[in-house]
Write a structure and sequence with these properties.
With 167 residues, the chain is α/β, with parallel strands linked by helices. The chain has helices at residues 3-12, 30-33, 37-57, 74-78, 93-100, 112-117, 121-135, 153-159, and strands at 24-29, 62-67, 84-87, 105-110, 139-143.
């Protein structure tokens, strides 16, 4: 079964031959879905709900990355019961936590250019700490988008530095 066939079968509620053991990553661009929440809720959200439900029934953890400002989509995204939600830098982490609560791990949201490419290891660690302080647990350090290819190695290492757990 190809990944595309597996995706379609999952949406249709049909059995699939196997499921990846790692978290599933779904991606879409928020700006291309709809700035109109009603259109998002009626057209896109029901398909995502079926997909996430099917994946979870098969034992998968579901992680969603969303490009762009998803603030207007948060009420619907909360209904997906995701395990991890990647959040871009232009979205308020506090707002995500307010809407989604502690049942979802928030991942992000450093600016990949300003903070990661052009930052310093010290500023990256400070930014990661600030994000964690803003939302608390559960949280994963990450940039809000893909890391630019010319990012200095020491900045990547700083991004991978664990943030101390706070109860």
């Amino acid at each position: 079964m190809t990944p595309k066939q597996r995706y379609r079968a999952t949406l249709a509620g049909q059995p699939v031959d196997h499921l990846a053991r790692l978290p599933i990553l779904m991606q879409f661009a928020a700006e291309h879905i709809s700035s109109n929440y009603g259109a998002f809720a009626s057209d896109y959200l029901p398909r995502q709900q079926r997909l996430v439900k099917g994946l979870k029934e098969m034992g998968a953890k579901v992680r969603m990355h969303i490009c762009g400002n998803i603030t207007h989509l948060l009420p619907g995204l909360d209904s997906l019961e995701l395990d991890v939600l990647d959040v871009a830098h232009m979205v308020s982490l506090s707002r995500v936590r307010e809407v989604c609560g502690r049942k979802v791990t928030i991942c992000g949201n450093l600016d990949p250019v300003r903070d990661v490419l052009r930052g310093t290891p010290e500023s990256i660690r400070a930014g990661s700490e600030a994000c964690y302080d803003e939302v608390g647990n559960p949280f994963m350090v990450n940039a809000g988008y893909e890391i630019p290819s010319r990012t200095p190695v020491e900045n990547l290492q700083a991004l991978c530095t664990p943030v101390a757990w706070k109860a």
